[in-house]
Design goal:
This protein is α+β, with helices and mostly antiparallel strands. It is built from nine helices and 17 strands. The strands form four sheets. Strands 3, 4, 5, 6, 7, 8, 9, 10 and 11 form a nine-stranded antiparallel sheet that branches. It is globular, with a radius of gyration of 26 Å. The protein binds succinic acid (SIN) and cobalt (II) ion (CO). The site of succinic acid has 11 residues, from β8 and β11.
Amino acid sequence: MNIDQPLTLLGGISAHEFMQTYWQRKPLLIRGAIPNFKHSLSIDNIRELVTREEVESRLIIHDGEDWEMETGPFDELPPASQPNWTALAQSVDLHDDNTAALMRQFRFIGDARLDDAMISIASDGGGVGPHFDSYDVFLLQAHGKRHWRISQQQDLSLVPDLPLKILRNFQVEEEFTLEPGDMLYLPPHVAHDGIAIGDCMTISIGFRAPTQATLARGLMDAASDQLAAASGEGFGLYADPPMAMPETMQQRYTDPEAQASTTPAALPENLVQKSLDALNAIRFDEALASRFLGVWLTELPSNSWFDIAEDPADLHDPDLPAGRLALDRCSRMMYRAEELYINGEVASCPASPALKQLADQRELSIPSEAFDALDEDEREMLNAWLDDGWLQFHES
Ligand code: SIN
Ligand code: CO
């Protein structure tokens, strides 16, 4: 993708300019972000989707100051003729190819940050109330109209004792009515309230932003898994394959200087010190951080699903017809330096230019320079991904 090319999706500015001017900074209203937009999923499709066990969903009904929230799956939603309700289906990109493709138009922000595409449907007056989110969001109007009111207010205090986050004191600063194809970008903590005008469907492209505590814990988990592997105590999530750990880790505690004790229950100060010394010997370095991040960020949500290929292509086959290899909509693939990550694992082959191209573009043409450059081991690995449905071959 050319990040300097003006994009209709961003109202005629480039991805580069969007990131410099708006991302994480200020709201942007984009009229006609997708001209003549008609999403392939209808309101009825979403009604069906929220009946499924594997789809995370919520129903929110409000009556004046009263807010009610239920979690799905739902046998049936209220009729369109009943006002003031909205149903939200989370991570529709896991369940629908077109929604996944729509979400991936925002990959100029990077896979580490892109989270999911949520779809809401609502009857007249429906919405989730005035609130703020801790994440950036693109709100794309997909069907009908929604009236948005936004505010960059400092006061983010909430009404107590409600089943959802509702701002106590929403002070509207700007408002706009969005029609299909219009989109509103909001950085974190901008207060907003979107109210459906008649039947309405909105697609939210959401982002993930870990807390510092999550990052620090992840690194500790990765170090802990590596230590367990180095001590022969199994392979945790982050220790396959194991990385080099300081050899001193296997040395045992010694105390030739210890004296006879009159306080046998007291913890030895020496042991306290040695514990800190042991921790300080662990290298919390870039390799460990990228191991944690690569595995964690590509981990599959529990409700993702792969169709196992019945007759998968064989990439060793010299008569393989022309076509393309494409990652399944649920597959997550990332890399850093030599390490390649897919669906919560470290790949068995290092991140070669061809495999990085597959990760960045999510597909490889056959034939192509990149495909031809794949060696035997890489083909074997991709064959296994084809078998598992992580990757698909489409003949052209
Ligand atoms: C919605 O689609 O109604 C909710 C989106 C949001 O406000 O974050
Ligand atoms: Co919101």
